[in-house]
Structure formats: structure tokens, C-alpha cells
Specification:
The chain has three domains: 179 residues, Rossmann fold, CATH 3.40.50.720; 34 residues, no CATH class; 171 residues, Dihydrodipicolinate Reductase, domain 2. 36% of the residues lie in helices and 22% in strands. The strands form three sheets. It has a seven-stranded mixed β-sheet, sandwiched between helices. The structure holds NADP nicotinamide-adenine-dinucleotide phosphate (NAP) and 2-acetamido-2-deoxy-beta-D-glucopyranose (2 copies).
């Protein structure tokens, strides 16, 4: 059996859903697993592959073959913001499914992982010991069986640990955007072994945006322009104001539907879209930092979180913004266009904000909270490649993370 040991950082909405998926997919993964083995004797002297009816699967392009092998995802550690729980022996043991169900239960109640200190066989660490322990485990497993670090936190504090474990030969799977949107130096280090990092869910949740871009890039098809609506919240808001509803009402409705962060200004500021835009820009090879991206905030500085409370913003601030947005919607409409909050990346320039777009494009037709990305390249010139679908949600995001983990299974022995 092939073992994929992993450490999960963050047990919020996404992290807990990932644990549920891992437990419920055990049978599926056991069947889906495969293993690359060195293959000799099945190739003729000319290198041509001979028919081999006795071999279940084979890869035609190299001297390896793929054979079925049960794969088992083994969670050897979990952490929240305060502590780390580790299996008693990371080489041979895991936190079993009963333990993982307890983690889900405890974290759903808003308690700390520490409450599980006497449940089952595990070791418990608090900062700063947890960082040292993680580094020790990474040193032990990274170069032997392999170890996957899965960052489902929303914190920038994980960057240091992630960079260290990458240096120790571990794999990294991210839903968290912050490690990829810090300095270029840290970004370069994290992606220095491209086969060992996956971060599909950092942009568009479960949508195959990163993998599609990587396929286009590696085929030598130059990407000329990306334009996308990458915030479900702002996609919803823009399509509702297009129907003539006041901006303030739409934002309040989005908040009560649970589409926004607790403070809707976290969405309206555009910072999160800016992070996604930076990840995409860097993927295209543009050597830029966060502060070189022009981001349009949908509220002025004098309505910021340091100036007024969420309640005051919703009651008194927001309505003052209605007229301006309404005028922009009307102007766009009279030009035959739709207003969208998008990121645009071309010629190493990256901008995030409201743009007028033709109504007969995928972005112009967008309704509701779907994410949409249009990709223009040599092959996708007049008609872009379009990726569209739910771009948020714990389930889809965790599914994207899980698919990333399975995608690197060949790096584990
Ligand atoms: N939800 C979505 O639809 C979606 C979509 C795409 C991407 N994402 C990304 O996925 C990540 C997780 O989202 P979420 O909604 O699950 O967030 P969340 O509910 O806020 O959960 C964050 C978790 O991370 C833990 N944490 C905080 N600092 C940590 C640290 N230094 N080390 C380890 N763990 C730490 C928190 O611990 P405590 O429990 O102790 O607070 C909490 O368990 C975020 O980066 C988000 O941007 C989410
Ligand atoms: C994601 O999980 C969080 C925490 O459990 C929950 O509050 C939120 O409603 C969930 N979001 C969705 C879209 O299910
Ligand atoms: C790049 O994007 C900017 C802003 O959207 C636009 O004005 C410019 O014409 C674009 N350049 C190319 C070559 O597409």
C-alpha cells in the first residue's frame, strides 16, 4: 500500500470539509491509487513498445509503467491557530477516522484542538514548540516516504514553516493565498520545485484554473491576456446592480445570504481579488509584488474599518455610494456594455476593479456568484478559453485541495 502522510494546517470551514472528504473517499482512493515502477524488458531494442498483455497499465513515453496500488491518505498531524496534534509515531501511525471526526466536531463547536489532548493516542504541542516539531517531522519524512503539508488556514504566519518544509523535501498543497502573495523571494522558494507544490484552490476554488493555465503555458502557447471575475460576492453584487437595484441594498442582501465576509468591506476592498490576480500574474512569469497591482476599492478610505464600525458603514456609509454606482451602470448600459468587477492581466500589467465589458462575452453574460475567467492566447485568440462555475464554498474548495493531494501521489513511496 502506498502511504501519503499529511499534516493539515487550519481546521476551519475548508479544513474540516477536507477531513470529511478524506474519510469518505477511503474506498475510492484505495482503488484509484497507482504507482510508477521502473520497467525494463517490455521495450524492444529499437525502443518501440511491445504489446504486453500481462501488464495492466503502461506509460508509452518513458521506461516506467503505472501499476495499480492501494493509496491511503494518512493524516499524521492537524493544527489550528494555537496548537498541533501529532500521531504518536508519524512513521507507522496516523490520526484515525474516529479521531478526525472528533477534530471536526470540536472545531465546529469553536473549541480549541487542545480539548482533544487526552483523546486517543497523540502528542500535543503549542507554539513555539509546534513549529520545531513540524520541522523535525518534515526532516524525517520529507526525504523518506514523503510528506504533504496542506495549508487550509487563512494566515500569513504559515509562510515561514512552509518555506522550511519545502527545503526539507516535502510537498505543499495550499488553499491559503497568503504564502504565494508575500514577497517574490518567498514565492520563488515555495515554487522552486514545481512538481511538489499544488495550489488549485487559491484561485476559483475547485475550478481547474491553475492547471489549465499551466497546461497552456507548458505547451508554449503564449497567454496574452487574462480577464476574470474572481469574487463570487462581487460578481453577485455587480449583476444585481445591473438589474437596477441600489448598491447598498444588494450588499446588505449579499451579507444576509452569507455571501460576504462578516465585514463586507473585506470583499468590497478588492484585496482578495488582488491576491488572486497576483498569483495568476506570477504564474504567467511576471515578477511583480502586491503593491504594484492597482486595486479599486468599492468604498472610500473615509468609510474604512479604522474610521467606522460595520454597523455604521452598513447604515450610513453604504447608501452614499448608491448614486455613483447607479450612474456607472446606466452609462455602461447606454454603451451596450455590462459593469463587472474584474482582474485584467496583460503585458505584465495587472489591474483590479470595475470595467465596462461587452454584453456578448462570457463575462458580460455572467449572472450571480459564479467565477468566470477568459483566457486569451495564440490558440485561444478571438474566442477565449472560458472557465466558469462556483468559485467558493467549503465543499468545492476542499474538493480542489483533495484533488491536488491525489495529483502528487507519485512523489510518495
Ligand atoms: N471558504 C472558501 O470558499 C474558500 C475558497 C477558496 C479559498 N479559501 C481559502 O481557504 C483558507 C481556509 O478558509 P476557511 O474559510 O476554512 O477559513 P477559516 O474558517 O477562517 O479557518 C481558518 C483555520 O486556520 C486556523 N489557523 C489560523 N492561523 C493558523 C496558523 N498560524 N497555523 C495553523 N492554523 C491556523 C484557524 O485556527 P482557529 O480555529 O484556532 O482559529 C482555523 O482553524 C483561507 O485561506 C481561504 O482564503 C476559502
Ligand atoms: C463554510 O464553513 C463555515 C464554518 O463552518 C460556515 O460558517 C459557512 O457557512 C460555510 N460556507 C458555506 C458556503 O457552506
Ligand atoms: C491591457 O489592458 C489594459 C487595461 O485593461 C488595456 O487598456 C490595454 O489596451 C491592454 N493591452 C493589450 C495589449 O491588450
Amino acid at each position: 500500500m502506498k502511504r501519503i502522510p499529511l499534516i493539515l494546517m487550519g481546521c476551519g470551514g475548508v479544513g474540516r470539509q477536507l477531513l470529511e472528504h478524506i474519510v469518505s473517499c477511503r474506498d475510492l482512493h484505495a482503488k484509484q491509487g497507482s504507482c510508477l515502477v521502473q520497467c525494463s524488458g517490455y521495450y524492444s531494442s529499437s525502443g518501440a513498445i511491445q504489446a504486453a498483455r500481462d501488464v495492466p497499465f503502461r506509460i508509452a513515453t518513458s521506461g516506467v509503467q503505472l501499476i495499480p496500488k492501494e493509496v491511503s491518505l494518512q493524516v499524521v498531524g492537524v493544527c489550528d491557530s494555537k496548537s498541533l496534534l501529532v500521531a504518536s509515531d508519524v512513521f507507522t501511525r496516523e490520526l484515525d477516522d474516529n479521531f478526525l471526526r472528533e477534530v471536526i466536531r470540536v472545531k465546529s463547536n469553536g473549541s480549541s484542538l487542545l480539548t482533544l489532548r487526552s483523546f486517543g493516542e497523540c502528542r500535543v504541542y503549542s507554539n513555539p514548540e509546534s513549529t520545531r516539531e513540524i520541522t523535525d517531522i518534515a526532516g524525517l519524512l520529507g526525504k523518506s516516504t514523503g510528506l504533504a503539508f496542506v495549508d487550509c488556514s487563512a494566515s500569513s504566519e504559515t509562510i515561514g514553516v512552509l518555506n522550511r518544509v519545502v527545503d526539507l523535501g516535502c510537498c505543499v498543497v495550499l488553499a491559503n493565498k497568503k504564502p504565494l502573495t508575500s514577497s517574490l523571494e518567498e514565492f520563488d522558494n515555495l515554487v522552486s520545485q514545481p512538481r511538489r507544490i499544488r495550489h488549485e484552490s487559491t484561485v476559483g476554488a475547485g475550478l481547474p484554473i491553475i492547471s489549465s493555465l499551466n497546461r497552456i503555458i507548458s505547451s508554449g502557447d503564449p497567454i496574452r491576456r487574462l480577464i476574470g471575475s474572481l469574487s463570487g460576492t462581487l460578481g453577485y453584487v455587480m449583476s444585481e446592480v445591473e438589474d437596477g437595484k441600489p448598491f447598498s441594498q444588494v450588499v446588505k442582501a449579499a451579507k444576509s445570504l452569507g455571501y460576504t465576509e462578516p465585514d463586507p468591506r473585506d470583499d468590497l476592498s478588492g484585496t482578495d481579488v488582488g491576491r488572486k490576480a497576483l498569483i495568476l500574474s506570477r504564474l504567467l512569469g511576471y515578477r511583480i509584488e502586491m503593491d504594484s497591482i492597482k486595486i479599486e476599492s468599492l468604498y472610500p478610505e473615509n468609510m474604512g474599518p479604522n474610521v467606522m464600525s460595520v454597523e455604521d458603514f452598513l447604515a450610513d456609509g453604504l447608501p452614499l455610494l448608491d448614486k455613483d454606482i447607479q450612474e456607472r451602470v446606466t452609462r455602461a448600459s447606454s454603451n451596450g456594455n455590462a459593469l463587472r468587477y474584474v482582474c485584467v492581466i496583460n503585458d505584465s500589467r495587472c489591474e483590479v476593479g470595475i470595467q465596462e465589458l461587452p454584453k456578448d462575452t462570457a463575462l458580460g453574460r455572467l449572472r450571480g456568484s459564479d467565477n468566470v475567467l477568459e483566457i486569451y492566447s495564440r490558440c485561444y485568440n478571438e474566442q477565449p478559453m472560458v472557465l466558469q462555475g462556483a468559485g467558493a464554498g467549503n465543499d468545492t474548495t476542499a474538493a480542489g485541495v483533495l484533488a491536488d493531494i491525489l495529483d502528487i501521489q507519485d512523489l510518495f513511496s
